[in-house]
Amino acid sequence: MATASMEDYLERIYQLIEEKGYARVSDIADTLEVHPSSVTKMVQKLDKSGYLVYEKYRGLVLTAKGNKIGKRLVYRHELLEDFLHMIGVDESYIYRDVEGIEHHLSWDAIDRIGDLVQYFHEDENRLKALQEHHKTPE
Fold first, then answer.
1. Total domain count for the chain?
2. pLDDT reading at 63 higher than 70
3. Is 11 labeled as ligand-binding?
4. Taking a C-beta distance cutoff of 8 angstroms, is the pair 6, 65 a contact?
5. Does 80 share its domain with 108?
6. Is 91 annotated as a binding residue?
7. Could you tell me if 63 and 79 lie in one domain?
8. For residue range 8-36, what is the model confidence (pLDDT) as tens digits?
9. What is the CATH number of the domain that holds 27?
10. Is 99 annotated as a binding residue?
């Protein structure tokens, strides 16, 4: 299983490939705010673990396994952002909070949060009632 650090890299690599069609070591380093040498080490580790194929100076490609996990990690991140926004967490805290909790929740918990988010999105009145509840002083 991927470590939290490996997940962060897979998530970002997947996003870069979706956005640009490719992911270079320099792009990954810039977006994760780490040194390119750290990215190279992690990419080599991800290659050995079967998440991607890396050729020095030629780039990298996610394997089917890496693509599937990358997609699910992006979903998890976006879902948690949606959930925190829905329950009224201040926008300035959402990204940091998601980064802090996303690796500590089971996929079962993520699925249940997904069910809850879907429940509120299915009926605009439910979502409005929840948002009104946030505005009501205790």
1. 2
2. yes
3. yes
4. no
5. yes
6. no
7. no
8. 999 999 999 999 999 999 999 999 999 99
9. 1.10.10.10
10. yes
